[in-house]
């Protein structure tokens, strides 16, 4: 007892007593009937994978009871109890087992704000256990096998491995995965994922529990994927399972490797996302998301908001409107939409003749909202008057479908880019004060007319002086394209004397315009389109702009003579650098990888970012051009559109292109964007090896490189053995392995097994991992029967090749034996 006089001893005893009597001890995974959790106290699952306690998201001042990952430094909640009712003081709030056997959350005012809401016969034996899979389970005693309640049956926004989203067929009720409102508010948002109550065995995403805007497609038991989620074929993490009987249907999944941390979340962007944690970057890695494009999420930008896929942020308010809650917009929560900056005149002064002073702002090339009311009128002016008759009419449209007015908030407006047949014009109602006054306009108009007359005279004189030097008798067309006359291009190319390349679509010549800019002029052959149709198609192509696509400068349509004018690429086409005879100047691996990635980005733009999917149909090294910095530019991306139905006939007779043709071309079935993926994969093999995919050795035997590469990859062999020997092994093994795996996936026989080009981009960027692909059956057949199959070892100069002047054309001779049909 003498030792108790020591103040340090007294402090130690007090700390021991406090720890012994504390309501819960650190590291325990269980809450019993005589324990509670409050303040900074937590419970931790047995393996340390998950933690339960109070947390606050982001910069919020609100607290919630939730479960988060225990071994990830970035606190990432996977489940939240009191989503709609946060607490402010965690020290006076507690999570405990109540007298009736429920797990409840009590706030500082001793009000129960959340409960498991179950019935228990023996409340004193009830325990809450946090399992190592992230499931919080309420049991009638620690040894009880059947749970009274579990958090996996009540998911928030995260779908953990082992969990299921089921449809109870007896009640026709679905479990929901519901998004947070934004990154700092876990309250249920507008977007939810569920198994379709209609019994289609599909998962659907709904807006506000009413409007469906995405479906996974039905489950295919044979391929073990959902029909419209082909990305599942690239899975290397999960073991998927779908179950259906007379009582319920559900989908569940587990991880092949328990050391991996991965999850599905219903994101507040309205997309279902698959994410994996990367220890190397200490970040969550997005594997895929659905819908693929943000603006496909219904009403993502809220009322009077406009969604635009080009540029960030995706959402903006219509003119005359501003964000309703700026704070939420800063958190990428646009669901509250926009509100008027100025009230309508008919709202300000109801006694005025209804809405006559309100005006309309034209908004072209948009996706029209739903819930329109049709009106029987015969002109644009009458349609406007019909809208003005109602003070709650917010907009009208008048086109071939007649007059439609909207007497509601405008939802799901999307701004299209470029020329698209889907775009319509809508007229948005605004207060008159939002427009310049007529008195001010009078002075402006007079000044504009006077200035315009003077400017016109100057332009006429200038045009006369320039006419003889550069005859541009046609005006600029849509997309800033120039319409040339034939003799101007004949002069620019010195009568087409310097040929850059030649192929199945025509020849390419180097030219110099009067402003000293160098261009490549392509003479098209087999184009039977009329003048008007050709101009329309070229105008559409001219609006497509991307850093990895060759820019179209202009065109010429002179009777049967059709020409296209492109930017000149000083480093020519990729084949001139891959297959050159000079073995001392091989293309460096860094440049090759840059070319592969840039080409994939360009194709992704054509396939997914344009209003209409554009299939290139002729991807090969000859059609990949290199600028002064060796950045790749996909060429000829509009020729499939220009040539139309004749393209397949022309393509299949083009020498040197069959080696890149997807099997569906040969079988005659409908061709999709996955045909480009196949051709891209074949080109990747050539980028790796620096040689044509098919070659004859000195003994006359055909070597088919893709087959060799696929076998090495499938057997986890030495990938450096596949590399161009001129590089002397100077390439990162992980990049080489990645690009070879991608190539093998791209050339799978079944197009549904091939990745999309956007997935290819993510893999090459290191965002996604990719598992080992199987060896395509067609490659095995080619290897087994190579002596009977023709391989086009060299292509003639491509229709878009822009070769350096010293490029040799000697390699354009075919080195193949007699042929039979390629399988």
Automatic annotation (TrEMBL):
ATP binds at residue 522. It is a single-pass type I membrane protein. SMART domains: B_lectin, PAN_AP, S_TKc. Residues 1-27 form the signal peptide. Keywords: ATP-binding, Cell membrane, Disulfide bond, Glycoprotein, Kinase, Lectin, Membrane, Nucleotide-binding, Phosphoprotein, Receptor, Serine/threonine-protein kinase, Signal, Transferase, Transmembrane, Transmembrane helix. It is an enzyme of class 2 (transferase). The chain crosses the membrane at residues 444-465. It comes from the Eukaryota. It is found in: Cell membrane. The keyword Membrane applies. This is Receptor-like serine/threonine-protein kinase. It comes from Hibiscus syriacus (Rose of Sharon).
